[in-house]
Amino acid sequence: MKIAIYPGSFDPITKGHLDILKTGAEIFDKVIIAVAKNSEKKGFLPVSERVNLIKQSIAGMDNVEADSFDGLTIEYAKKKGAKVLIRGLRAVSDFEYELQLSQANSALCEDIKTVFLTTKPKYNFISSSTIKEIFLNGGDISKFVPEPVYEYLMANKSEV
């Protein structure tokens, strides 16, 4: 079974993330979308809530599961028996950072490969940071995030 890990902060998950995830799910037998816990970074949403929102957003995707992890992505991938890391690219500007990350992961474990997947052009400009900025300034994010994320943010507007 070919298992892939799609790691990231997903703070919050966007339709662009889901587009990449759907492509990954077509290629691999199992994809684990894994929220990385970063203790040095205060998240917009708690990790547990991000995982919960991802689970709601991937309903019906039978070969996809959501999880979270601490530490190195490569160690998490080994623990899960994955041989591939999925990284998403929106634009050329993403490539340099993602290439460096993939080379570092390769240096840590040559057996785990990185696959770069691109999102549809209509999602190229969407990032979690952009979504947060639009939301915090009262803009409409409904076109950019899955329905469960939109509903959660609207219901918890005063707390976020």
Write the SSE topology:
Blueprint: E1 3-8, H1 15-27, E2 30-36, H2 47-57, E3 64-69, H3 73-80, E4 84-89, H4 92-108, E5 113-118, H5 128-136, H6 147-155
Parallel strand pairs: 1-2, 1-4, 2-3, 4-5
Provide an overview of this structure:
It is a single chain. The chain is of the alpha/beta class and 160 residues long. 42% of the residues lie in helices and 19% in strands. The chain has six helices and five strands, in the order E-H-E-H-E-H-E-H-E-H-H. Strands 3-2-1-4-5 form a five-stranded parallel beta sheet, with helices on both faces. Helix 1 (15-27) links the parallel strand 1 and strand 2 (30-36). It is globular and about 45 Å long.
Short description:
With 160 residues, this protein is of the alpha/beta class. The chain has helices at residues 15-27, 47-57, 73-80, 92-108, 128-136, 147-155; strands at residues 3-8, 30-36, 64-69, 84-89, 113-118.
Strand count, sense and closure of the main sheet?
Answer: 5 strands, parallel
Q: Multimeric state of these chains?
A: single chain
Q: What general outline do the C-alpha atoms trace?
A: globular
Tell me the distance between the termini.
40 Å
The number of E-state strands comes to: 5
What structural class do the secondary elements suggest? alpha/beta
Which terms would index this structure?
6 helices, alpha/beta, 19% strand, single chain
